[in-house]
Amino acid sequence: MSPFRIFLVVFIALFAIALGLLFRRLLVHRLKKTVMDNWLIQTLGVVIALLPIILAGIAILFIILDSTYLQLFWEKFTQQLPIPDVTSVIWGFIQGLLILFIGIGIARTTVRLLQRQGHIDINLRTLLERMLNILVITITIFWTLSIWNISIAVPVAVISILTVSMAFAIQDIIKDLVAGFYILMERPFHIGDEISTAMYTGQVENIEIRATKLRLVSGEQITIPNAMVFGGIVVNNTYYGERRATITVTLKQEEFLREETPTQILDALKEIDTVMVKPEPSIHISGYNGPSLTLTLRFWIANRQLATVSDVMYTLRTVLPNTDLAVIEAAGNI
Fold first, then answer.
1. What is the SS3 assignment for 286?
2. pLDDT of residue 296
3. Pairing state of beta strands 282-289 and 242-252?
């Protein structure tokens, strides 16, 4: 091969690679400003980068080899293979892979778009994300199989057989899946709420198809199967904006003045800003024990303001220094 052809081949190859990388950089830079997922962006970037390289490869073959010799080589190559149409098979394989990668990118982009819809309920949004993701991936897989001339009946039959054979082995998982859809649709609690189950109290970090993840009040993360959440008693600690606290005040009977002591305690509570005005605090006599008398004080505070209980205890101790104080309801374990 002449030096000119060698120079031309090297030049075309380097130019094609540089052009492909330039096209990819421009496309990726442009698409990153959109809501498209990075998977789809990188896939399209690879496709646009390969186009000039493929064209350059074809041009290099024509430069290196004589067109007649190239044609004879291709005919001998195809005759050696049992496949009647090699070109269609290769193109179908490439097309199927491309559709598969783009389908995954579209599914991820759809999820990303839904995550930006802040006005949609978070549970409903999570359910839609999962359903659309599964739908797009399923359509992509069946589309790819149709391009590869694989009968749809084959994967359907395989899935049916596997479903029947594994149904008894994964009963608990199926229960968790059904319970997960119920939780996302019925919305007994939302992601971000703080709930209490029979054993745990924590903030809901995620509601997955199989399990619910909580961040416990002690800081650990725990994964609870959805069937246990679905079948058990769940207390939503953040459904209402206020919580009730209860403190007992025990003092000697001779120190208790029927009109003055309750008023003195209620007036002291009014000085604490974090004690809610509505519902109003209440106090009543709840018991006599020999020379002692017990008062029960109930008041309301906003969620996540547990320090208010300590403020009330300190204030009561200042107002009535000779009393015994005990917290009966601490406004929840959150």
1. strand
2. 92
3. unpaired
Q: Is the pLDDT of residue 292 over 70?
A: yes
C-alpha separations of 201 from 133, 213, 218, 219, 307 in Å: 31, 11, 9, 11, 19
CA distance 157 to 181: 26
CATH architecture, domain 242-330: 2-Layer Sandwich (3.30)
CB hemisphere CA count around 91 (13 angstroms): 4
Q: Which CATH number fits domain 175-236: 3.40.50.300, 2.30.30.60, 3.90.1150.10, 3.40.1280.10?
A: 2.30.30.60
Q: What is the DSSP string of 114-145?
A: HHT-TTS-HHHHHHHHHHHHHHHHHHHHHHHH
Helices vs. strands in the chain: H and E counts, helices first: 10, 9
Residue 238 contacts residue 193 (beta carbons within 8 Å): yes
Give the 3-state secondary structure of residue 294: strand
The maximal CA–CA distance of the chain, rounded, in angstroms, is 120
The rounded mean pLDDT for the chain is: 77
